[in-house]
Amino acid sequence: MGFYRKTRVKDAAFRRVLPVVLVTLLGVLFLIFLLKTSSVSDIVTWNSSEVDEPSPVNYNLSRFNVKPKLPKQTKLSNSLQKRNQLPPRNLDLFPNLAKDHIIIVLYVHNRPQYLQVVIQSLSKVEGISETLLIVSHDGYFEEMNKIIESIRFCQVKQIFTPYSPHLYTDGFPGVSSGDCKDKDDASKKHCKGNPDQYGNHRSPKIVSLKHHWWWMMNTVWDSLEETRDHSGHILFIEEDHFIFPNAYRNIQLLTALKPKKCPNCYATNLAPSDVLSKGEQWESLIAEKMGNVGYAFNRTVWRKIHSKARNFCFFDDYNWDITMWATVFPSFGAPVYTLRGPRRSAAHFGKCGLHQGQGERGACIDNGAVNVEVEEIDKVANIKSDWKVHVIRRQEGYQAGFKGWGGWGDERDRRLCLDFAYMYHFRDTLSSSDLKS
Ligand SMILES: *[C@@H]1O[C@H](CO)[C@@H](O)[C@H](O)[C@H]1NC(C)=O
Ligand SMILES: *[C@@H]1O[C@H](CO)[C@@H](O)[C@H](O)[C@H]1NC(C)=O
Ligand SMILES: *[C@@H]1O[C@H](CO)[C@@H](O)[C@H](O)[C@H]1NC(C)=O
Question: DSSP letters of 86-154?
Fold first, then answer.
């Protein structure tokens, strides 16, 4: 995981509009009308009690007053949110998506020299023109945009988290003038903020990545027109993942084989969960702990993850992946396995930004030159459907019981995170008492 993180924002519009509307009954009716209207385009038919795993503890919205109170947006964040509605580019070159395509979501911050490598690798992926590539940005950076705008090998759509701390120069989720810093004592310094379990106050740069990941997941699955009705898998990759030419065909194969070969697997992966491993190179499929490089899953799994929003948002760790391993997955009640091939089809190459300092043995990048070796066997699909599955039962690394690295103690971050989970489901959670309060 990178050092950099993002933040996100909320819908300030509601907060400002609501009191006015409440003044008259007419206003209330108007609001309901607005909500109904917007829900048509936002969520289609949504029934959270139906689709999310029933989980009363995790789903206790009343404690949070439910109504998303998203931060007041800036001009830039507003304009980016509008831009998220633009149709994909390259529709003229690739008017149709293939049947059963696997959508690819690439989430990025601001490392253009890495992004260049990722996009170059994606351009050589067999089958990439059959699908849609969504690039989710944390922050607004021209150099990053230029790279994405140059893509001609598939449909591509950019989205920007309007609540990235990088978009707010004065106020939450960015840095606010009255905020506590580092190990400040809030009562002595009269500053704002809740320290994490180690006594440190929030750092907008640090929290931004977990916020971005969560905003992106919620937006892609539950809101974005291009993806909210997608019935298949979505593959997630990051700005420092080198993608092999056979990645798309392999993930298609794995996804097709999963129901038969590993019905208990939640996901498919392009790479081993040990980011330094190139794979065992055996003649078999591997089921193991879900990894964070090139993972794909479907809506059923997303609903299950979404139903654990409180676990995700309250765990005091600023890393989304460690949060998943230490609290969300363990809450599913059984080990979470993923299905992958015996050779990696994606490689993590960023040594900068690895938070355990484990970059030494991994493939490294120097000014855009990456030394990931792509052999002939990595250029074509190399997974056989008659292979058996080798199950790696021992799940190494972060587990239930791990207390977290901290960085996620501020009530405002937790609240914003929960708001992301419910901002697209507001219609369901709006009750008459909400309207009266
Ligand atoms: C939502 O799902 C629940 C459980 O299946 C059902 O009882 C309820 O009537 C549904 N609500 C709507 C609005 O469809
Ligand atoms: C939900 O939270 C509220 C407020 O904390 C509490 O009164 C209520 O009992 C909780 N409901 C459940 C089902 O836990
Ligand atoms: C989605 O994946 C899960 C886990 O592999 C599987 O149990 C479920 O049936 C799949 N859902 C759909 C709609 O294919």
Answer: SPPB-TTT---PPTT--EEEEEE-S-HHHHHHHHHHHHT-TTGGGSEEEEEESS--HHHHHHHHT--SS
- Residue 233 CA: which ligand 3 atom is closest? 1
Query: Both tokens of residue 12?
Result: 């300030």
For residue 115, give the nearest of 127, 133, 128 by alpha carbon.
133
Cβ-contact 190, 121 below 8 angstroms: no
Mode of pairing for the β-strands spanning 346-348 and 241-243: antiparallel
pTM of the predicted model, to two decimals? 0.80
DSSP 406: B
Ligand 2: residue whose CA is nearest its atom 12: 60
Under the banding of pLDDT at 50, 70 and 90, the label for residue 29 is: low
CA atoms of 269 and 389, how far apart (whole Å): 14
Whether ligand 1 lies within 6 angstroms of the CB of 47 is answered as yes
Residue 271's contacts (CB-CB under 8 Å, 6 or more residues apart) are 277, 279, 291, 293, 294, 340, 344, 345, 346, 347, 348
Q: What is the mean pLDDT of residues 274-284?
A: 95
Looking at per-residue confidence, does 4 or 69 come out higher?
69
Q: Is 50 in the pocket of ligand 1 (CB under 6 A)?
A: yes
Q: What is the DSSP letter of 8?
A: -
- Write the class of the CATH domain 75-352+370-422: alpha beta
The domain segmentation of the chain, as residue ranges, is 75-352+370-422
**How many whole angstroms from its chain centre is CA 70?**
18
CA 55 to centroid of ligand 2, rounded, Å = 13
Report the atom number in ligand 1 closest to the C-alpha of 45.
14
State whether the beta carbon of 62 lies less than 6 angstroms from ligand 2.
Answer: yes
Q: Which of 187, 238, 240, 207 is nearest to 404 (CA)?
A: 207
